[in-house]
């Protein structure tokens, strides 16, 4: 990692990071193509499946590796150094499995089946809750997607936005308003169910390779057991798995930092008798990048360690988890900005990975929780103490 501190603390974590680093190097060579074409990285996920990483967060009792949050974040940060969209997509899959393993909200039989599908058949899943009409689910909007119970089956109609991994998913977890009760339910749908289709709507400047297209549900009929839970308000449940988001953007920032340091060591304009690494302002910017990086990483991993080592105290981490996302994501943006200032106008060339890092890292502002929700949460706690 080019002089960046390795946060692995065990042999198994070091082996995980080594495996992920090898993949990240391969992914980095493909990243520009996937970005330019807005093409889903099928080849990357084929390699991830060969490396048997899809069951990292599945409990050992169900055949998985039983990795904790700390392990998960090490993987995310490392993969993102090679390709941010691939890491973010992988994070949704692994994170959902981790969250279900933590709170067990699904029927036991359903969770066992999905775990078996992942462990034995390398299946992929993700949720698709967002809708154009409601905006982010974190803001409490009720789904316009509907589910109606008819003769013991569910008939589901609606449209979902931001379905990351859409081209490769085997299972979609969607939210819908149950017509009979007005409750919001979560349903798990197999890809091959009749009436489920994908519309390619993902025209974005950031995270282009996630292919977060729209999911269309047109009279989808599924059995009664497709309902996996009736959703409750989750704001008061600590969501440790969401730290995969800042870990991903931190990985992008590390890649940008490394690119800028490499450039500073090698680039020597004819106006100088030495490479620009000797220029005081350049050295200052490198120092700033590393201070921000150290601060963000220590915050991220210290909270992850708390989560893993003190499960009975997780309720106390709600504000800290949100603060990690806020601090780390904004620091990642600032680090990429510093890197581009070091490289200068060359960083804007389409041939430079820095312009891709710049576009991708800004997507973190729009992943949950948003900055305003985090600041409001922290202020509420301070004022009510």
UniProtKB/TrEMBL annotation:
Keyword Repressor: no
Acyl-CoA dehydrogenase/oxidase N-terminal domain boundaries: 11-99
InterPro entries referenced in this protein's UniProt entry, alphabetically: Acyl-CoA_DH_C (IPR013107), Acyl-CoA_Oxase/DH_mid-dom (IPR006091), Acyl-CoA_Oxase/DH_mid-dom_sf (IPR046373), AcylCo_DH-like_C (IPR036250), AcylCoA_DH/ox_N (IPR013786), AcylCoA_DH/ox_N_sf (IPR037069), AcylCoA_DH/oxidase_NM_dom_sf (IPR009100)
Database matches in CDD domains: ACAD
Gene3D superfamilies on file: Acyl-CoA dehydrogenase/oxidase, N-terminal domain, Butyryl-CoA Dehydrogenase, subunit A, domain 2, Butyryl-CoA Dehydrogenase, subunit A, domain 3
Record keyword Glycosyltransferase present: no
Domain of life: Bacteria
Keywords: Flavoprotein, Oxidoreductase
GO molecular function terms listed in the Swiss-Prot or TrEMBL record: acyl-CoA dehydrogenase activity; flavin adenine dinucleotide binding
Sequence ranges assigned to domain Acyl-CoA dehydrogenase C-terminal in this UniProt record: 246-364
Domain Acyl-CoA oxidase/dehydrogenase middle, residue spans: 128-220
PANTHER family referenced in this protein's UniProt entry, alphabetically: ACYL-COA DEHYDROGENASE, ACYL-COA DEHYDROGENASE YDBM-RELATED
Name this protein carries in UniProt: Acyl-CoA dehydrogenase
